Amino acid sequence: MRDDYQQLVDEITAALGAPATLENRDFALIAFGAHDSDDAGEPALDPVRTRSILQRRSTAAVRAWFEAFGIARAQAPLRIPPDPAAGVFMGRICLPVRHRGVVHGYVWLLDDGHLSDLELGGPTGAPDPRLARAMETAARIGALLAAEARAGEELGELLHDVITGPPAGRDAARAGLRAALRGAADGPLTLVAVVPWTPGTDEDADPGLPHLPGIAAACVLPDDGAADAGLAALIRLRAATALDPARATAEQLLRSPRATAGGTAPGGRPRTAAGVSGPRRGLDDLPAAWREALAAARAARADAQLGPVAEWSAIGPYRLLAALPWAEPDPAVRPLLERSHAELARTAETFLDCAGQAGRTAQRLGIHRQTLYYRLSRIKQLTGLDLDAGEDRLLLHMALKAARLGPPPGSATLSAVKGVR
To answer: In angstroms, what is the C-alpha Rg of the chain?
Structure first.
């Protein structure tokens, strides 16, 4: 289908005598027309188009600038002026790509002077015949994108049932997903979790599922009954030992407006993060893979050193803690988790992360050793735990990590340790 998009974009480029680019409604690049060179032999591109082609996505500032002109509601072509502050050094002509009243993407043309005579039409006149032909082609693109979106929704429903459906229906969903994915269903595969993810609404007729080449299927799932929803994306891998495609896709997903809508959590921690499960062969173990991906995403949200994309194999103690039911902090550690003692909690966690080595701990915290020793004595007074005793150190370390991880997203329970890094 990607070849079909390229052919249609090339038709628009030929009809208007100007290179066109096609992006989906999330501003991810799908196809672009050939660009002529200027007199110096360099491509006549502005920085925004260059970034879109090289990174296959526009920035949030660029998206906000274009959407402010109502492109998501437009029924006809729009001429948009440049805005150097947003990095848009050339104006654009936007052809909305719609199907049955729903926008599925945009065709962009650089308004660099070559199209200054192009009549867009409107209340006072008809559009240029070349533009009318281009809009007919855009409508064909819209039909293709709509068909792809419907297919994606069906795959997403199957993935949803495979991961969370009742046992009676899980086998049928797995068989349906296997048939749809054909050879890719045998793997290697991995699941990516993005938490939180803002789902679509009935009003915008958009389920909020991403359309990226590496995603075999995607669905929106509740996070263990919490208020936040998470995105589950099934990713094809080239090899079971190489998770790079999953990490790259996760990084792209985190730039989506549906991921960034959450903003920043208390303490400056990332509100949104992604987790990558261990690789799988086939579809039988996807429920366990989802638990791994979700645990890694929660760990990345809890500990900035792991994120914003964390692999389940690299989250250390959070693999164990995320699998356990949430419980209130141990009574001995609870006083240390009060917000008034956040610095002491940070000191204790760093000391234990450094295997109890005072020199490394003081260096990492940027304090004098004597200051560290004073804080350690205060920690002992507050908790009654002996930091020279292995079992007490284990209890304190796990309690601090559990408090940092916290309950599943959506719970109102917070603790001081979650903002210390």
So the answer is: 26
